[in-house]
User: Fold Membrane protein from Gordonia phthalatica.
Amino acid sequence: MTDAASGGATDGDWEYVYRPRWMKRAALVAVAIVMIIHVTFGLLLDISYTGVNVDWADKLSLIGVGVLISAVILYLTRARIRVGPQGIGVLNLVSERVFGWDEVLGLEYPEKGSWARLVFPSDEHIPVMAIQARDGELAVDAMNRIRELGAHYAPARKAD
Assistant:
């Protein structure tokens, strides 16, 4: 197992890269709503006098809070899975982990799960947030493509 920001590899070094589509669309809608609300209330903050002095610093601060919330929402769109001869790179929220083909047993989708997971020996697994149920047929195609590449690159395993 290798923990690396990107392992020094670019997307061009990988044979297949998949990112979730539904999460990106949902995040963009959420960012638009958050920014519309914060900009509107920020600009209209002093429309009527309530006994509190409101100046431009207060207005900009409210808009700045909207920008920070939007940045956190956009951070959730980082999920990605990359597949190539060197293994599988899984980027969830914090960091990318690259697993060699000799470590990975497969990719599965739990019956009641929101996203797929990589399976390792000894009943271990990690979530793959990039392959989500809400992506529907795109997620199924991604899993099939990753399994094809796994069959091509992974070493043959002995039956126990």
Notes: Confidence is low (pLDDT under 50) at residues 1-8.
